[in-house]
Amino acid sequence: MSTVSPTLLEARAIAKHFGGVKALTDVSLSIRRGEIYGLIGPNGAGKTTFFNVLTGLYHPDGGELHFDGEKLQASAPHKAAQRGIARTFQNIRLFGNMTAIENVMVGRHVRTRAGVFGAILHDPFTKREEAAIHRRAEELLHYVGIDHRANDLAKHLSYGDQRRLEIARALATEPKLLALDEPAAGMNGTETEELRVLIEGIRADGITVLLIEHDVKLVMGLCDRVAVLDYGVKICEDIPAVVQKDPKVIEAYLGGSVA
Description:
- The chain is α/β, with parallel strands linked by helices.
- The protein has helices at residues 47-54, 77-83, 100-107, 116-121, 124-144, 159-171, 189-204, 216-222, 240-243, 247-254; strands spanning 7-18, 21-32, 36-40, 62-67, 70-71, 85-87, 177-181, 208-212, 225-230, 233-238.
- It has 2 domains: 1-84 and 175-259, P-loop containing nucleotide triphosphate hydrolases (Rossmann fold, 3-Layer(aba) Sandwich), CATH 3.40.50; 96-174, no CATH class.
- The protein is built from 10 helices and 10 strands.
- The chain starts with 6 loop residues before the first strand and ends in a 5-residue tail after the last helix.
């Protein structure tokens, strides 16, 4: 008898408006612990807006988010990270003049305990914590496959390696849910396949993944379930085999009516 994993994230009737534009309208979905969940749709469908609401960049105009059994209050991004939600961005947002390992160490900020006085006095506790942060950053760079670029400036990394570095920085926050916004954008076939293997490994290590991606082939081959947005409305949510055949999904992507 198969069992269904408990829900990690539940969105209930989420709405977000920008003036007269309804970016999200009553979007409800649930993500189970330990799955890879895809969120797809045409350009302007509201996918990134949903990410921004989830991670505290935007406050919703309606609805509720429940995460890990508790209501997720509207808050700042660092509060969402503290709760266990990490994300990457559609447009890479690294600190270009910092090294790869420094970028990952920044991601550990939400899990550190040393405060301002510790940084000034550099007491034994702070030194031990800094050493632990450095070790963990090294481990994560190895995990995503770019440990050989640890001391290179982020701006000097290849596009694919910058994507991997963003994922390593997000993982440094010790997330329960990793939200990836278009991680395969701009990647070639080899890089996309390596990304697929990495995401599967992240899930195997116990982290739930929410994936926005325009590469439909990647989504359908990787995700356990998929939701489709169109003009801010959820039009389908199911396993990939069902979603691919849904007439509303085909119409949203191809346009026109579907007999």
